[in-house]
Amino acid sequence: MSVTLEWINRRERQLLVHSFLYYQLNENIISDHTFDLWSKELAKAIIDHPETFKQSVYAEGFKNFDGSSGYDLPFHLPEIQNAGYKILKYHNEKRK
Predict the structure, then answer these.
(1) What residues have CB less than 8 Å from 9, skipping those under 6 apart?
(2) Are 23 and 47 in contact (CB under 8 A)?
(3) pLDDT truncated to tens, each residue of the chain (96 aa)?
(4) How far apart are CA 32 and CA 53, in angstroms?
(5) CA dihedral 5, 55, 79, 71 (to 10 degrees)
């Protein structure tokens, strides 16, 4: 896996959106296994590539992230919630 700033930003957004869906809306679009895998990948990237991580969009919100939970991530941000609602709407329409 090649860790780039783009990859870190994408993984942070994915974890934020899915944490919002799970903890605020009680919705689960991805499996717990996938969330855990993404969390562990990002936690490792934060340790292995600290200078790249420091440049990421949500670095401040992930500074103490160890991959164990998304409960205390900053998923209250409007852009994260908007993305979450859009993804949930798409997911629900696709299931019909």
Answers:
(1) 56, 57, 58
(2) no
(3) 789 999 999 999 999 999 999 999 999 999 999 999 999 999 999 999 999 999 999 999 999 999 999 999 999 999 999 999 999 999 999 988
(4) 24
(5) 90
The CA distance from 44 to 61, in Å, is: 16
- Look at the block and give the residue holding tokens 């590539």: 49
Q: Using CA atoms, how far apart are residues 40 and 91, in angstroms rounded to an integer?
A: 25
Q: Which amino acid is at 25?
A: L
Measure the CA–CA gap between 50 and 91, rounded to whole angstroms.
Answer: 34
Sign of CA dihedral 54, 60, 63, 69: negative
Looking at residue 64, the DSSP 8-state letter turns out to be T
Q: Which pTM was predicted?
A: 0.95
DSSP letters spanning 28-53: -SS-HHHHHHHHHHHHHHHHH-HHHH
